[in-house]
Structures are given as structure tokens and as C-alpha cells.
Design brief:
The chain has six helices and nine strands, in the order βαβαββααβββαβαβ. With 255 residues, the chain is an alpha/beta fold. α1 packs across α2 (43-55). The model has no long low-confidence stretch (mean pLDDT 95).
Length: 255
């Protein structure tokens, strides 16, 4: 499957366009099979999307009580730590979406180090995998234990990593689990949880959200056929569609 690159002028325009696209994707998914399952991404682009989504006049078109939100990865730190993607998303506006009908129990945050598993990050990964299987893996699209998402959104690092799957790491090759621990991330903090590559690719649509000139080389490499071990973003594709949604700065090195 080929990827499509769509370029927007700047980060603010990009975030607004993604928010509008997400509303449409969720309403279409709900028309087809009721509930919708979406994987959120962290970082500045993910937070900008949340801000744009909360403020979008189209947001009330979604039946938010039938939406489940998941995370592609998370820092394994205290639950209220400012380093956590979920904490940043709440501050960006996700916490206000209950006014739109989003059920807080449908926001599936990854485990934290102050949860019962404590330092046992492997057990924490297994717990999130079990939640995925129970909630997202019981539809006729996925089957028990095999989560299937409508949309997976991913940021891309300057090294072309996605979620917490980094170049050269063994976690890139894991195919027998849905969630893996990463205990030695090259980017702090070192302990993280991540969905595996096959699970990310289970989505009907994968969207890679990238803004900023510091990501331009990564975008060019991943869309240009780089090896997945060198540029993990090159290995993520949706079952129906793969979109690179970028601003002009991030697209600067494209042909």
C-alpha cells in the first residue's frame, strides 16, 4: 500500500485540518459499526490536535459516548507526571470532552509506575494488552485478543521513531504481543510502554502527524523507502489508507 502525503501551511492549520478529518472518520466508523476505536499520540502535535478538536464546531457531530480512546505509547512514570502523554492531553483539553459526551472510562490510559504493578513494567504491559483484548478485540472486525482500530495517529521523532519503537531496538521485531515494555529508551525517560508494530498496522487508517523542520529528514527517509530498523515510521501502514499529514517545514526535504 502506498502512502499519501498531504501538506498544510503551518502547525496550527495542520492541527485544525486533522481535527476535522478525525470527526469525519469517527462519524463514518460509527455509521458502519457503532463504536469507534482511535489511538491518540502525544507530543506537541498530538496536544495541538486535542486543542483543535475540543474547539472544533464539528465535534458535537460525533457520538462521543461510543468512542474509545487509546494510546500508542506512554512514559512509565507516576500517573500525574507532566511527562505522561495522558497528563498533557488532559491539560490540552481532553479532560473537557466529557461535556461532549465522552465517557472517562472510555479513555484507556496506559499503566503508570504508581499502579499496583510498580516496577514490574512487563506486568504493566500485560495488563494493557488484556484491556485491549477485552475492549477492542471482541468485535467482528478483530476477534478476541486482536485489537482493530479505526484510526491510529502517530507522531514521528527526528530519528523517525513512532510510539516508543526506536531505531535498532528489538521491540521493532515483536509480533507475538500487542504491548511491549521499553526499558532503555534513547530519549528520556527511559522506561516506556508501546503498542507493537503489527497492532499499529491493524488500523483501518494510520495517520502520521508531523510538524517542524527538525522532522524533515525523518519524513523524507520514512516516505522514501528507508528500512524499518533505521526508520520505524517507514513500517507503519494502515489496512485501508496511510496518510502523512505534515506542515510545510516537515515537508521541506521531500522531492
Amino acid at each position: 500500500m502506498t502512502s499519501q502525503v498531504i501538506v498544510h501551511p503551518d502547525k496550527a492549520t495542520l492541527a485544525a485540518a486533522i481535527a476535522a478529518r478525525l470527526v469525519t472518520a469517527i462519524t463514518d466508523a460509527q455509521a458502519q459499526h457503532g463504536e469507534a476505536h482511535v489511538v491518540l499520540t502525544g507530543g506537541s502535535m498530538g496536544n495541538a490536535l486535542i486543542e483543535a478538536l475540543v474547539d472544533s464546531p464539528a465535534a458535537p457531530a460525533v457520538s462521543w459516548e461510543l468512542v474509545h480512546l487509546w494510546w500508542g505509547d506512554e512514559r512509565y512514570v507516576d500517573r500525574e507526571s507532566a511527562d505522561r502523554n495522558a497528563t498533557q492531553a488532559r491539560e490540552a483539553g481532553l479532560g473537557r470532552m466529557d461535556a461532549l459526551g465522552l465517557d472517562p472510562e472510555h479513555v484507556h490510559e496506559m499503566p503508570a509506575i504508581d499502579d499496583p504493578e510498580g516496577d514490574d513494567i512487563g506486568a504493566a504491559a500485560e495488563r494493557y494488552a488484556a484491556e485491549l483484548a477485552r475492549v477492542a478485540g471482541t468485535s467482528d472486525r478483530g476477534g478476541e485478543g486482536a485489537p482493530t482500530f479505526d484510526v491510529v495517529m502517530l507522531g514521528v521523532g527526528p530519528d523517525a521513531h513512532v510510539a516508543s519503537l526506536f531505531p535498532g531496538k528489538d521491540t521493532l521485531g515483536v509480533t507475538d504481543r500487542t504491548v511491549v515494555p521499553e526499558e532503555d529508551s534513547p530519549k528520556p525517560p527511559p522506561a516506556r510502554l508501546s503498542l507493537t508494530l503489527p497492532v499499529l498496522c491493524s488500523a483501518d487508517e494510520v495517520w502520521l502527524l508531523v510538524a517542524g523542520g527538525d522532522k524533515a529528514q525523518a519524513v523524507a527517509a520514512a516516505t522514501g523507502g528507508a528500512d524499518v530498523n533505521e526508520a520505524p515510521a517507514a513500517g507503519v501502514t494502515g489496512r485501508r489508507r496511510t496518510l502523512w499529514l505534515v506542515d510545510e517545514a516537515a515537508a521541506a526535504d521531500l522531492p
